[in-house]
Amino acid sequence: MIQVHCNWLARVTGSLGANWQTTAFELDWRDSNNNRLTPVALLRQLIIAVVALFILLYAGNIGISLINTRTLVAEQMHVHAQDTATSLALSVTQDARQGDMAHLETLFNAISDSGFYERIYFRNLDNEIITDRRFEVDVAGVPGWFIGLVDLSAAEGRAEVTSGWVRLGEVVVESHPGQAYSRLWEVMVQQLAWFTLATVLVCLLAFFALRILLRPLRRVEEQADAVCNQDFLVQERLPRTRELRRVVEAMNRMAVRLRDIYASQLSLIQRLQTQAYRDPVTGLSNRADFDARLASLEPEGEEVHAGALMIVAIDDLARINDKAGRDEGNRLLKSVGEQLSEAVSRFPGAVVARRQGPDFSVLVPDVTREEAKELAGGLFARLMPLSGAAGDGYEVQVAMGFTYKEVIVRGSELLAEADTALRRAHADGGNRWRDFSDLDGTGEPPVLARPVHDWRAFIEHCIREHAVSLLYQPVCRGEGTEVEGVEVLSRLLDDGKPISFGIVAPIAERLGLGQELDRLVLESLAVDVLSGTGGYYAVNLCTSSLQSLDFLDWLDAFLAENPPLRERLVFEVAEHAMHVGESEIRAFQRMLARHKSRLAIDHFGLEASAFAYLGSLPLYYIKVHRSFIRGIDGSAENQFYIQSLLQLARSRDIALIAEGIENEAEWRALLDLGVEYFQGYFIGHPEAVH
Q1: Which of these, 106, 284, 600, 625, has the minimum number of CB atoms within 10 Å of its CB?
Q2: At a CB cut-off of 8 Å and minimum separation 6, what does 563 contact?
């Protein structure tokens, strides 16, 4: 819907003919086949028109002036030659009668010094030339094309030499047009100089005047661009020109209308998402959302996740609803949800859900066993004050089952273990919680389990020794195999054995080592990218890196020092990281834009608040969390969500990437929905060579 209105916007701002149309301050030229030509700014066109007009006026003036001057000069040359011939004929009568040729030549030479004559000669009655003088006249500085254009023919004057009634001969004077050419050329150059000066002055005046007059159009252009980017600006200052004022008022009305439509559409999608994936009482995730997120942690190739799962049960909720009222029961459920959410708030990716009735589920991915046990104890302690929350005479009992896996293989298995531990806690009675590992009798820690201080030592060792390997997973477009870019996946090396960055990064964040890990990955990529192919490189950043001025200063310098890499970098920020602060995210995006790097959101869709960024933040793409992709071929709710999100993304000219595609059925379903970009093990596995 929004895209349709943006297309209509181009038509609203005006059209100037069948084959070309204008939008605000720039003309959109099209040829007879409707192919778009290079646009030319309206101000530039007006300046060009002024210059062209002056050139036309100058050309016309010069043409008329040359024609009139040429005619006048030709007549003057003829008269001048004739007068000179008559004067000479009178002067040489005595010399011709006495045969004094020396004096005759001296007289001819004196006249020729003026440079106006090419030839002067005297011939007798027998047509014999007695004296003949030719004079070369210099026309240097006059271009040949001008001489050819004017083409003045030599004028000739004749006069008889007589003594009384006796004819002695004839004097002939041929004028030379060189002086006329020089004079005409000087006149034309002077006119050109004056016309050029006048043109420059007029253009300067027109430039500043038109900039002022066209300023409202420039604001309309900015407003049009902003509207197409879902930034619905309204111009408060209206131009005084009536026509421009009407255009601006129409643009303002359209901007307000589109803003209402976009907000309504966004609100509808958020409301539908809330209804589909949120519990209406507590506002937490519901069972469907929780199960999808848990399933998304199952291994995808080499990518594995650790995690802890807790099921919390509030006993006697039905009795509280009957005796104290459903409002009191709902208040208790909200209090439990708030306490659980606050307890896990420092763990990115943690999920708190109300599965059913009095049962809550808490999933905390990528934590160590030590952190998980400490979290479970602290979380349960938070719930103890709620034991009397339902009022006098209605004691509340809380039970919790806990389990931990270093590698989550199946989400259903994790749920079954936590449920078993919960039943044991119920059996023991009272306010209790139980750990499944204490029940299974093995007591054997997972292979990769290690205490927090060991994790710190391991991560610091990897940073010092650059013990990291990079893999590249392709992002492809459509049904073809064309690779648009790659996501950079990192592995820390533990005695040569790779450990997924997805496991290490959350622990490093909590230990304050996230920034150092991000530096390690980028420095390794700068070396590795020299052998890479085309396309972009997507790199994930830790939330703590976005909050660190030291890291941002380092990144600014790093991008400046790596020109071949920076224009191909896309920095993926997890959706939950968008809560670090809008001003920080926007400052980060502006810094990337200076280096022509780009920003994207990873794991999109888990939090409704991220929708707000689609309307204002310049993003290269959004990558939908794979919990919405898994089994999408059989989920009408997820299909509707992806289709709605795709419409919003397209209206902002933001690409949408579906990640975690594991089979052809999911890929085909996404193709049918109109998704263009795909990532997952069905599309391509991470490889060291890219």
Answers
A1: 106
A2: none
Alpha carbon of residue 386 to chain centroid:
52
618, exposed or middle or buried, with CB in 10 Å at 0-12, 13-18, 19+? middle
pTM for this predicted structure: 0.60
Task: Give me the sign of the Cα torsion angle 597, 598, 599, 600.
Answer: negative
pLDDT value at residue 612: 63
Cα 77 from Cα 152, distance rounded (Å): 10
Do strands 26-29 and 156-163 pair parallel, antiparallel, or not at all (unpaired)? unpaired
Q: What are phi and psi of 284, to 5 degrees?
A: -85, 175
Q: What is the DSSP string of 644-683?
A: HHHHHHHHTT-EEEE----SHHHHHHHHHHT--EE-STTT
φ, ψ dihedrals at 667, nearest 5°: -60, -45
Which structure tokens are listed for 4?
């349709």
3-state secondary structure 360-402: EEEEEECCCHHHHHHHHHHHHHHHHHHHHCCCCCCCCCEEEEE
For residue 685, what are its two tokens? 């596995």
Q: What single letter denotes the amino acid at residue 159?
A: A
Joined tokens for residue 219: 């604001």
Q: Across residues 564-572, what is the average pLDDT?
A: 91
C-alpha torsion 11→16→17→23, nearest 10: -40
Cα–Cα dist 110/117, whole Å:
11
CB-based contact 115:179 (threshold 8 Å): yes
Q: Cα 285–286–292 angle (5° rounding)? A: 85
Q: Could you report the per-residue pLDDT of 194-210, keeping only the tens digit for each?
A: 878 887 888 788 778 77
Tokens standing for 358? 């009095």
Averaged pLDDT, 63-72: 76
Whether 485 contacts 475, CB under 8 Å: yes
The C-alpha atoms of residue 471 and residue 348 are separated, in whole angstroms, by: 24
> Which 8-state DSSP code applies to residue 231?
-
Cα(63)–Cα(305) distance, rounded to whole angstroms? 86
Sequence letter at residue 173: V
> Angle 451-519-407 (CA atoms, 0-180°, nearest 5)?
35
- Pairing mode of beta strands 483-494, 497-500: antiparallel
pLDDT tens for each residue of 352-376: 999 888 889 999 988 888 888 889 9
Q: Which two tokens stand for residue 225?
A: 């661009």
Look up residue 634 and give its two tokens.
């059989």
The length of the chain, given as a count of residues = 690
pLDDT in tens, 496-518: 788 877 778 878 888 888 899 99
Are 578 and 571 spatial neighbours (Cβ–Cβ below 8 Å)?
Answer: no
The residue to which tokens 């509340």 are assigned? 396
pLDDT band at 656; cut points 50, 70, 90: very high
Helix (H, G, I), strand (E, B) or coil at 19: coil
Tell me the C-alpha distance between 415 and 365, whole Å. 14
Instruction: List, for residues 258-294, the tens digit of each pLDDT value.
Output: 777 777 777 777 777 677 778 888 888 888 888 888 8
Amino acid 505 reads A
User: What are the pLDDT digits (tens) for 594-630?
Assistant: 999 999 998 887 765 556 666 668 889 999 988 889 8
CA-CA distance, 520 to 37, in Å (whole number)?
Answer: 46
Reported as type and span, the H/E element at residue 310 is strand 307-314
Torsion over CA of 14, 18, 20 and 25, rounded to 10 degrees? Answer: -10
What is the crossing angle of helices 411-428 and 287-296, to 10°? 120
pLDDT for 539 equals 94
Calpha distance 574→166 (Å, rounded): 120
Q: Hey, what domains does the chain have and what are their CATH numbers?
A: 49-201 (3.30.450), 287-438 (3.30.70.270), 452-678 (3.20.20.450)
Amino acid at 543: T
